[in-house]
């Protein structure tokens, strides 16, 4: 595309203004005052965390049912949230104010996998137009996750103690797990511990077939020490995660081990001049991949179906943030901030001894001494002009500096002593280049909120948001199929090659959103949010080469794709609402909640669909609360996925409807949760599930009778009976 065609001209601006949408956080972000724009009311907190924990151990799925949110399938505790058609690194994720990065060529350890669902006290998402104080280096949205906050004794009490224990069981994949938390504290000092373990076998689809490589196990331990002053809070958190096994059915590899430890220091205080919020953190991750047990022949347990290919990474996240809120001129707030984040990565594949010697004798260096540093500064002005109008204007600059060392391939020699030249050719070409890259990224946000009536509000906004490439998008260097196929966080079975010359993505979003509700937001509410985003230099792909497998009666082709800059256009509609149906002494209260989402993303040059666009989908929940009981019927509707990315062989999927039932009873400090997911055992394919790679391997047959199969979409989980128990004390 020519430079002139990338410019935003007045007709485009007008059109996007009419089509855009302002984001709505799913929970109330901490604000300096009630005037803050896009601060959701209390009713907008993510509902029923306990019921969502009962259905899944995946922390990302605590956002299920939220408008504009979908999930790209990964492991059982490691799905990737998709916010309005944009996923993975396009969505910035904070876990207890720590900005974390996936340290894996397949992104098997995304940020949300580092906190157990049982330890989450609050989670929310802001999409599209977000204040610059929320964060940068994203174009899709921001997710904030908080663990349990420190507890203190009431003034005058000597020492108090409390905690909880919980457990669950899910029948479909025989998932079982438990969690505990405990705190001892006085009015100024608090010490708490948490722990969680989750384990599951492979799940079965609606036809009763086992979907292999969907097993998982995860263990998390944490401790919190907190000190409270009159107007300040200092919190020190530390923890460790160990994942000994996690299958990935839509990937060539599985996770064999993930060890991560972190330290997080957080301080916030009120002063005469305003507020200060400061965080410093460090996380160290060791990660190993290889072919898991389901990708090996069951009778031999040796690497015949998928070759033995050990892969290891070490990633370190280090950073800090300083944020201030300074009130001035009565109803005005100035927010200033400075942030730093450094991610360092080493990704190496140890050599192995093979007959042909194709994976040795040298260690394959995929990313060698990779680093990605972000230095950010922002300023934001919030003003309450009168009783009806509030505005926010903010500017953010991020200096992103990336580098990586020289690399090498296996440099294997075949039996004739000939050096395999492809690895050497690619590594020498990469090493001859200057690897250092610097980006200066500017974000601008302008928001306005107008309260038309006490029961109606309109929010309008514009954002320019920028994201630099990740380390793999820039530095993954090998064009060989075996190596490029290991760089894939899309679940599509293709191979990916980096590009040193990538430019940052720049997204322009304009927005308008309308919210109607009763005066107390208790009886009814309706929010309609269309949105439109145009992305310059969107990081897409182009074909570099192909890989074809053949067998008697058929063949299958995948592509080696190179990351390149393109343009992208994304627009859609989110609708959410609630309606109180009844309230009386006999039946308690009844409420109907619902959401509807549609997103459409295309490459404006080719007209083809962007990858992993969620089809039209909706959630409807009828909930009753009476005395200690909470009962609900949930309906999930997903339309046919016909808009797919042909370049990546993205499969089409049929529409489906799922019915879930749940009930819970709370008596004193004991809560029992019961539920049935996929009540009618419906068979369906996941629209963002990618391909079933295990079926292609057909790994349950011995090598002599193994038959190859076409890639097919990934089937979802069949009916499951779930039970949970929580005791607080």
TrEMBL record:
Q: Where in the cell is it found?
A: Cell outer membrane
One of the protein's GO biological processes: siderophore transmembrane transport
Q: Look up and give the membrane topology term.
A: Multi-pass membrane protein
List the SUPFAM superfamilies hit by this protein, alphabetically: Porins
UniProt keyword annotations, A-Z: Cell outer membrane, Membrane, Receptor, Signal, TonB box, Transmembrane, Transmembrane beta strand, Transport
What GO terms are given for molecular function? siderophore uptake transmembrane transporter activity
Q: Which GO terms describe its cellular component?
A: cell outer membrane
Where is the TonB-dependent receptor-like beta-barrel domain positioned along the sequence? 208-679
- Where do the TonB-dependent receptor plug domain residues begin and end? 49-142
Annotated signal sequence range: 1-28
Entry-linked InterPro entries: Beta-barrel_TonB, Beta-barrel_TonB_sf, Plug_dom, Plug_dom_sf, TonB-dep_rcpt-like, TonB_rcpt_CS
Its main subcellular localisation, reduced to a broad class, is: membrane
- Family stated for the protein in its record: Belongs to the TonB-dependent receptor family.
Under what name is this protein listed? Answer: TonB-dependent receptor
